[in-house]
Design goal:
Blueprint lengths: L1 E4 L5 E7 L2 E7 L6 E7 L8 E6 L2 E5 L5 E6 L8 E5 L2 E5 L3 E6 L2 E7 L4 E6 L2 H4 L4 E5 L3 E6 L2 E7 L4 E6 L10 E6 L4 E6 L4 E7 L8 E7 L8 E6 L3 E6 L7 E7 L4 E11 L2 E8 L4 E5 L17 H33 L12 E8 L4 E8 L3 E8 L3 E4 L7 E4 L4 H4 L3 E6 L6 E8 L5 E9 L7 E7 L5 E4 L9 E7 L3 H11 L12 E8 L5 E7 L2 E6 L2 H17 L4 E6 L2 H38 L7 H8 L1 H10 L3 H18 L9 H10 L2 H10 L1
Antiparallel strand pairs: 1-2, 2-3, 4-5, 5-6, 6-7, 8-9, 9-10, 10-11, 12-13, 13-14, 14-15, 16-17, 17-18, 18-19, 20-21, 21-22, 22-23, 24-25, 25-26, 27-28, 28-33, 29-32, 29-34, 30-33, 31-32, 34-35, 36-38, 37-40, 37-41, 38-39, 39-40
C-alpha cells in the first residue's frame, strides 16, 4: 500500500491490482500537507500515518480512521516532522519542539532556518538525540533543550535520513543531502561527529530533496535512493565499503519531492516510487518488461499490456470530453449577465540560489501545469547565461535604462508540456535592485504571477565557515546610535544567506567568500558598532556606500572610519590575474578560429601550421562553447580591476577617472608586473 499527502490537504491511500490503482481511503481537503511520516510503537511495523498541516498534527490508522488531532502551540506552520515511538519532533522556521505523548518536553531556538529534523534510534543509542539540518550549512545536535555540538557541512542541508534506515550498526550514522547537490554520511557520537564520506556534485545536478535506503538490487545490502530538484532519480550502491557508487539514474521532468523503495505493483518485484511536484507518482520496477523473442519474430504485446493500453486510451478520451464540457460551461457562464470572472489559482515552486562554481545565480521556476512563457525583467545590469537543460526559446526586447531603470527584458517561450524552467544570471557587485519573473502557465483564462528576487549589493558573496586570517585586510568601522536589530537589517540588505531574524546574544560574526574572485569578508557587529574586514578594497567601498545610505534613510548619524592596507591591492590583483590571463587567451583563440578554418579549407590540410594553432583548430568547438557559456566574462574582470583602481584612490580622496583609459591599455597588454606598477605609481 502507498500513502500520499498532497497540497490540497488530502491524504490518499491506495494499492495496485493488475496495474490499476485501487483506493483504500481518501480524506477531505484542507490545509496543505507539509510532511507525512509513518509511526507506531518502537520495534513494531510502522503502520500509523501522521501528517502535519499548518500547526496541527493528525494521525490516521492504515484503514483511514482518524485517531489523533493534536493542535500544537506553534505560531508558524510546521516545516519538518519526525516520529519515533511516542516522541514527536516538530520544527517551524527557527523553532524546534519535542513532544512525548503530545506533552511539551523540550524547545530550542535555532540561529538559522531549520530544513529537516530527525532523531537517532532510541533503542540503539539509549538516548534521545535530535539532529537539526539548518540553512547556515550546519547540522545542530541537541540534548534536551540545549545544543550539544554543531557540525559544518559543505552546503545548506535540505534532508536528513538514518543510514540504512536504522542508523547503521551503531545507530549513530546519518545521511544528509544539500541544496547544492552534495551527499554525505556522518557518525554522531555522544561527544563529537565523525565524518565517514562525502560525494560532491561533479555532474552539476540539482539539489537533493529526498533520500531513502532500500535493497532494490536484492543483494542483501540496502542501496541509497536519491531524488533531486531537477528530476534526477539516482540509486547508489555500496560496492566498496568506503563510499557509495552511482549504479542507476533516471530523469523525470519535475522535481522529486519524495522517494521510497518497496513492493507495490507485483509480488516478488520491488519498486522505487517517486512523487513529483505537479502530483505524479512514478514507479520504477525491477520486473523485466521486455519479453524474449526470436531474432526475426515480431514481438507480440501480451494480453495484459494490450488491455492496459486500451484502458489508458479510454481514460484519456474520458478526460478530454470532461475538459471540453467544463470549457463550454465556463464560456457560457462568462457570457451570462451575472458573470463573475474567476482567476485560476496556481502555485509556483521557485528557487533563487548562488552557484559557487561559476559565481552565477540559478533561478528555477516550476509550475503544476505547463508553462506558456516567462518574462524576466531587471532594474540592475545582469547577464543571462546559457543553460544546457533549457529548451525554451529566448527573445530580448530593447529597453530604456534611463527614465524607469530597465536594464533587462527577456521572454522565454516554453515548448509544450514544460513545467520546469531553469535560468542563470550573473550580477555585478555594487549594483543592486530587483529581478522580476512574470510566469504565465497554459491555463484559461490567461493568468500571470509575478515573483521578485533581490539582487543584493554584495550579491556574489557566499557564507563560509572560516576565513584565512593571514591575508592583508582592509577595515571599515561604524559607530552610531543604532540598535543590534537595525545594523543586522542593514547586513541582511547587503549580503545573501544572512538569516532575517536578529541573532540571539549581544554580538555576531559572519564570514563570507566572494565566489567570483575568492576574496573574503568578515563582519562582526553589535549594538552601536560594526566592524567589517576584507582583503578587497572594492568590497569595503560598496559596504561604506550602502551602509551610510541606509543609515541616512533612518536619520541615524554614523561615525565611519577605515583602515586601508596598501598590500591588499597587490594581493587582490594577484588573485584576479590568472583569471584575466585565461580569459584573454580564450578570447584570442576564439578570434583566430575563423581565419584558421579558412586556411584549412584553402590548403586542404593543416600540417604546415604551428602545433599551437593546430590545437586551436582541434579544440575549436569546446573553445566556442566555453566562450558562449561565459559572455562578458572578460569585461567583468576589466570592470572589477577598474573599480579596484578607482576605490583605492577614493579612500585617499583623489579622483583618478581620467587615468582609466591608460589602465585599459595596460590590461590589454596582460602584464601583471606592469599592472601592479601602474596601480602603485598613479
Amino acid at each position: 500500500k502507498v500513502v500520499v499527502g498532497d497540497q490540497d490537504g488530502v491524504v490518499t491511500c491506495f494499492g495496485i491490482k493488475k496495474g490499476e490503482a485501487v483506493p483504500v481511503f481518501k480524506t477531505l481537503p484542507g490545509q496543505k500537507i507539509a510532511r507525512l511520516e509513518l509511526g507506531g510503537a518502537l520495534n513494531t511495523p510502522q503502520e500509523k500515518i501522521f501528517v502535519a498541516t499548518g500547526s496541527e498534527v493528525r494521525g490516521f490508522t492504515k484503514r483511514g480512521k482518524q485517531f489523533l488531532s493534536f493542535e500544537t502551540n506553534l505560531t508558524e506552520s510546521i516545516k519538518a516532522m519526525y516520529i519515533s515511538g511516542a516522541d514527536l519532533f516538530l520544527c517551524a522556521s527557527y523553532i524546534y519542539n519535542h513532544y512525548c505523548d503530545c506533552k511539551d518536553q523540550h524547545y530550542y531556538l535555532s540561529g538559522d532556518k531549520i530544513n529537516d529534523v530527525l532523531c537517532l534510534p532510541v533503542d540503539k543509542v539509549n538516548r534521545i538525540t535530535p539532529v537539526l539540518a539548518c540553512q547556515d550549512r550546519v547540522l545542530r545536535v541537541l540534548q534536551g533543550s540545549d545544543l550539544l555540538y554543531e557540525i559544518e557541512v559543505p552546503g545548506p542541508p535540505t534532508v536528513l535520513a538514518l543510514n540504512n534506515g536504522n542508523g547503521g550498526d551503531s545507530g549513530e550514522e546519518i545521511v544528509y543531502g544539500t541544496s547544492d547537490g552534495k551527499l554525505g554520511l556522518i557518525q554522531i557520537t555522544g561527544s563529537k561527529p565523525v565524518p565517514k564520506w562525502e560525494i560532491g556534485n561533479e555532474k552539476k545536478r540539482g539539489g537533493i530533496l529526498c533520500v531513502d535506503s532500500f535493497d532494490i538490487v536484492g543483494d542483501g545490502v540496502k542501496e541509497l535512493l536519491v531524488g533531486r530538484d531537477d528530476g534526477a532519480l539516482e540509486v547508489y550502491n555500496f560496492e566498496s565499503a568506503d563510499e557509495p557508487v552511482l549504479r542507476y539514474d533516471h530523469a523525470l521532468s519535475e522535481s522529486i519531492g519524495s522517494i521510497q523503495g518497496g513492493c507495490v505493483g507485483k509480488d516478488g518485484y520491488d519498486e522505487i516510487l517517486a512523487s513529483t511536484y505537479s502530483g505524479w507518482l512514478t514507479g520504477l520496477t525491477t520486473e523485466p518488461v521486455h519479453r524474449e523473442g526470436g531474432s526475426g519474430e515480431e514481438l507480440k504485446l501480451s494480453q495484459e499490456m494490450q488491455s492496459k493500453i486500451s484502458s489508458l486510451r479510454n481514460e484519456l478520451e474520458h478526460l478530454q470530453m470532461k475538459v471540453l464540457q467544463e470549457r463550454e460551461k465556463y464560456q457560457q457562464s462568462s457570457q451570462s449577465s451575472t458573470a463573475v470572472s474567476s482567476v485560476p489559482a496556481f502555485s509556483v515552486n521557485d528557487k533563487f540560489t548562488l552557484n559557487k562554481d561559476d559565481a552565477s545565480y540559478s533561478l528555477i521556476l516550476e509550475v503544476q501545469t505547463a508553462i506558456d512563457n516567462v518574462l524576466v525583467q531587471s532594474d540592475v545590469p545582469i547577464d543571462l547565461l546559457d543553460v544546457d537543460k533549457n529548451s525554451a526559446v529566448v527573445s530580448f526586447s530593447s529597453c530604456d535604462s534611463e527614465p524607469n531603470s530597465n536594464f533587462l527584458l527577456a521572454t522565454y517561450r516554453c515548448q509544450a508540456n514544460t513545467t520546469r524552467l531553469e535560468l542563470k544570471v550573473r550580477s555585478i557587485e555594487g549594483q543592486y535592485g530587483t529581478l522580476q519573473a512574470y510566469v504565465t502557465p497554459r491555463i484559461q483564462p490567461k493568468t500571470c504571477q509575478v515573483h521578485q528576487y533581490q539582487i543584493k549589493p554584495l550579491s556574489l558573496h557566499q557564507r563560509t565557515h572560516s576565513i584565512d586570517h593571514d591575508r592583508p585586510m582592509n577595515t571599515l568601522m561604524l559607530k552610531g546610535q543604532f540598535s543590534f536589530a537595525e545594523i543586522h537589517s542593514w547586513v541582511v540588505f547587503c549580503l545573501p544567506e544572512v538569516p532575517e531574524k536578529t541573532p540571539a546574544g549581544d554580538s555576531i560574526t559572519f564570514y563570507f567568500q566572494n565566489t567570483f574572485l575568492g576574496t573574503q569578508l568578515e563582519s562582526t557587529y553589535r549594538k552601536g558598532e560594526g566592524c567589517f574586514k576584507s582583503d578587497n578594497i572594492s568590497t569595503i567601498s560598496i559596504l561604506k556606500d550602502v551602509l551610510s545610505k541606509e543609515a541616512t534613510k533612518r536619520k541615524i548619524n554614523l561615525n565611519i572610519s577605515y583602515d586601508i592596507n596598501e598590500e591588499s591591492v597587490r594581493h587582490t590583483l594577484k588573485l584576479i590575474h590568472p583569471k584575466l590571463e585565461y580569459q584573454q587567451l580564450l578570447a584570442k583563440k576564439v578570434h583566430l578560429i575563423d581565419a584558421l578554418r579558412e586556411l584549412q579549407v584553402h590548403e586542404g590540410n593543416v600540417d604546415f601550421l604551428l602545433p599551437k594553432y593546430r590545437s586551436i583548430l582541434e579544440e575549436a568547438d569546446q573553445l566556442l562553447e566555453e566562450y558562449k557559456r561565459q559572455p562578458a566574462h572578460l569585461e567583468r574582470l576589466y570592470g572589477m580591476i577598474t573599480d579596484l583602481f578607482i576605490d583605492k584612490f577614493k579612500f585617499k580622496g583623489t579622483n583618478v577617472k581620467t587615468k582609466v583609459p591608460l589602465l585599459l591599455e595596460i590590461l590589454d597588454g596582460c602584464d601583471q608586473d606592469g599592472l601592479i606598477a601602474f596601480f602603485e605609481a598613479a
